[in-house]
Request: fold
Amino acid sequence: MAQKEYAGVMVDVNDEGYLENANQWTKEVAAAIAKENNLELTDKHYHVLDFLRERVAKGEALTIRSVGKSGVVDIKGFYELFPGAPLKLATKIAGVKKPLSCV
Reply:
């Protein structure tokens, strides 16, 4: 297990850069991960990140479709907020494990 510093905090990360311990996540850590991925977070981003963290805490599997049906953001908006591979990027910034549906 590797460690990386985000916002002055050392966090445990896997070889893909995902946090190993979701309890090490803070909004400041999220902002630093986002910045590393050329993204500046807005309130809308944080609403999506909170949704993802809540769902994972409940043991639910995450999919782009489930995010799109969440009422927090539609699929098009999800792609706009987290360009490229939205679920992969959003879960990384949210400090949760990469979903099995992401390659």
